[in-house]
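User: Hi! I have a protein structure encoded as tokens and I'd like to know what sequence might fold into it. I'm fairly new to this, so please keep things simple.
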């Protein structure tokens, strides 16, 4: 409805009925009792279904008045042919006294109303059209709300499943990775007992050192697991900051690693301002820098690029190296807890932590890798 003009398509094969309906609408607009003040009805008349199909692809309209019995279509098939193409616009069925049951079925299937020919006047006709438009509009709004709710429920369900799988994986990994240091502690406690009995101080010191190393590995494992489980529960207030400042803080945190590896880091000329939990976001960036250096150890020196791209709906930040090429089948696993790329790489939880921090911010994190493209970790910050 534009400028209080309601555009109506009438599909009716009887010319006399079509003229009468047009007069009814004109009189109703003139009386202006049942309508919005200033409403004008602009009616287009088609006398068969085929001509309507040609019109709908070209024109715009607010409502359809439909006679179910036409020269080229009859009964409920007429309603269904129009209903499946009409989209969000309402249909008011026009019927004879003998076809009320058919009209009632059409209402059950999606028509907004029906009127009996010979019993409807201008007041009833205009009111039915206006109310049908409003009801249809309300239905579409409710349908959109329901669809959005269902989408959110699906997303939340998927998120909960991912968290459940993550917890299950965490428990399995901790159980698995704790076995080795526990076996080490148990074994060397036996050696320690013998060495204490023999008074071999050198062997005692070695035993204690190996037990201490095993305990340290267990501590690191448990601390990192605790960090992962606490993300989202312990939050710092968000603050606005230039993303470039966060990158500089991360480079300071990773300064020793950058220096020892002689890594070369290329930064974008400018960065946008973001609203983030600053300490956590610096932790993410530092972790990504550490990972780039760790997995490009053979490069001399490692080359890393930190920047961003802007599309129509969001800003995508990235941390990229030009050495690692990862199999697409492995890219889905890289964010799993303690995932090992190969037997030579030790367990790591950094990428899993980083993704969880980004998700708590409402963003996404993913990996892109391909031939001659290196490996790029991308993420968004709403």
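Assistant: Happy to help. Inverse folding works backwards from shape to sequence: for each of the 382 positions I chose a residue that suits the local structure. Here it is:
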């Amino acid at each position: 409805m534009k400028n209080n003009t309601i555009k109506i398509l009438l599909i009716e094969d009887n010319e006399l009925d079509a003229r009468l309906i047009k007069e009814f609408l004109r009189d109703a607009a003139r009386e202006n009792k049942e309508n919005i003040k200033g409403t004008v009805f602009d009616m287009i008349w088609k006398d068969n279904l085929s001509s309507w199909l040609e019109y709908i692809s070209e024109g715009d309209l607010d409502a359809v008045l439909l006679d179910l019995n036409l020269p080229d279509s009859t009964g409920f098939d007429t309603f269904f042919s129009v209903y499946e193409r009409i989209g969000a616009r309402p249909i008011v069925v026009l019927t004879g006294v003998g076809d009320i049951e058919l009209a009632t079925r059409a209402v059950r299937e999606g028509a907004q109303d029906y009127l009996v020919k010979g019993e409807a006047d201008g007041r009833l006709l205009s009111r039915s059209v206006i109310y049908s438009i409003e009801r249809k509009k309300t239905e579409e709004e409710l349908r959109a709300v329901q669809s959005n709710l269902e989408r959110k429920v699906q997303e939340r369900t998927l998120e909960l499943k991912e968290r459940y799988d993550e917890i299950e994986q965490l428990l399995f990994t901790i159980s698995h990775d704790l076995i080795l240091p526990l076996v080490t502690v148990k074994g060397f406690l036996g050696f320690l007992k013998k060495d204490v009995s023999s008074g071999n101080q050198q062997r005692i010191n070695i035993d204690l050192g190996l037990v201490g190393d095993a305990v340290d590995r267990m501590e690191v494992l448990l601390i990192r697991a605790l960090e992962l489980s606490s993300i989202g529960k312990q939050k710092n207030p968000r603050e606005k900051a230039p993303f470039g400042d966060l990158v500089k803080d991360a480079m300071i945190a990773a300064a020793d690693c950058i220096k020892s590896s002689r890594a070369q880091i290329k930064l974008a000329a400018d960065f946008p301002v973001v609203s983030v939990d600053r300490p956590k976001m610096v932790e993410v960036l530092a972790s990504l820098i550490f990972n780039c250096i760790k997995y490009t150890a053979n490069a001399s020196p490692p080359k890393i690029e930190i920047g961003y791209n802007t599309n129509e709906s969001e800003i995508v930040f990235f941390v990229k190296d030009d050495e690692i090429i990862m199999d697409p089948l492995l890219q889905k696993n890289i964010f799993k807890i303690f995932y090992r790329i190969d037997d030579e790489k030790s367990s790591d939880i950094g990428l899993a932590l980083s993704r969880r921090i980004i998700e708590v911010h409402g963003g996404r994190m993913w990996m892109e890798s391909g031939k001659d493209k290196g490996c790029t970790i991308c993420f968004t910050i709403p």
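A useful reference point when you look it over: The CA atoms of residues 194 and 200 lie 9 Å apart. Feel free to ask if any position seems puzzling.
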